[in-house]
Each structure stands twice: as structure tokens, then as C-alpha cells.
Amino acid sequence: MNTTHHLSQTDVEQIKDEITQAVKTVIKGCEALDMEMAFQVFWNSPDFRMISMDGGLCNYQTYVQNNIDYLQTCARFTLTTITLEIPVVTRTFAICSWIYRVDAALKTGEHDRIERAGASFVFRRIDDDWKVVYYQESTLPPTRTPE
């Protein structure tokens, strides 16, 4: 079923570009170890939900704090996009499937690597901005190696 039949191809492409930029903001913030930048696209609301890699359900505050706790252990953090797909559902609702690789140099000298991880973002346009209202990650734990 084509749910975007009421949108022009130009509208769909513009929405995809805007959401791609939002995901790039997350990546750029994580790589800069800038938590404020990384998480600005996530909806800071009691209604935000995230399913973590271990199958836990958490709210915005817990999600952000878990990431801050980990990123503070990193000297360098790199995310490499393998695949990014964005089905646009409506003018104010889209889903983003992101397959990526993680490479992190820890302050301890160790190195974390995830060869392949997946994430699903549910985006909603809120006050003229695209915000992630629901997020899910899927991956095995990182492979940790010494320096």
C-alpha cells in the first residue's frame, strides 16, 4: 500500500533529506563526543521509548544517560553507515532503518568494535522539526580488544 500517494515525489525526497540530516547530526554528535548535539533529534518527552540492545525498554532520560555513560569512556568514537533507508509514511511521520558499524577507542587503551548493528528510528514532525519518538537498537555486544 502506498501511503505517500498524497505527497509529491519532491515532498518525499525533501522529507528523506531532512531525516538523513537528522541522522547525520546524531552521528556527528557521537563522533565529536558532544552529547547535546547527538541527542538533540530525540524527543525529550515522557512518551519517548527505546528498546535497547539487551531487550530493555527505557525512557528518554535513561537512554541519554546510558549513552553519556558509555561515550564518556571513549577517546574516539566512529559510526560508519552501511545502509540507510527511509520509508516516508505521511508528511509528519517516517521510519528510518539504519545499518551501521561502530569503532570506539576507549580511554583505557582498549578498543570496541561492532561490525554490524541495526537501528530503527520512528520520526515525527513536531513543531517543524523531525524528532525521534521511538528508537530500537539491535546488535551483539562489541568485540573488545586490547590496544
Indicate the low-confidence ranges by residue numbers: none
Strand fraction band?
A: 35-45%
Structural class: alpha+beta
Q: What is the helix/strand order?
A: HHEEHEEEEEE
Q: What shape does the CA trace take?
A: globular
Largest sheet descriptor? 8 strands, mixed
Which bin fits the share of residues in helices? 25-40%
Secondary-structure map:
Blueprint: H1 9-31, H2 35-39, E1 49-51, E2 57-58, H3 60-71, E3 74-85, E4 88-90, E5 93-106, E6 111-126, E7 129-138, E8 143-145
Parallel strand pairs: 1-7
Antiparallel strand pairs: 1-2, 3-5, 4-5, 5-6, 6-7, 6-8
What attributes does this structure have?
3 helices, globular, 147 residues, eight-stranded mixed β-sheet, single chain, alpha+beta
Question: Can you walk me through this structure?
Answer:
With 147 residues, the protein is of the alpha+beta class. Helices cover 27% and strands 43% of the residues. The protein contains three helices and eight strands, in the order ααββαββββββ. Strands 1, 2, 3, 4, 5, 6, 7 and 8 form an eight-stranded mixed beta sheet that branches. A hairpin with a 4-residue loop joins strand 5 (93-106) and strand 6. The longest helix has 23 residues, at 9-31.
Question: What's a concise summary of this model?
Answer:
By secondary structure, the chain is an alpha+beta fold.
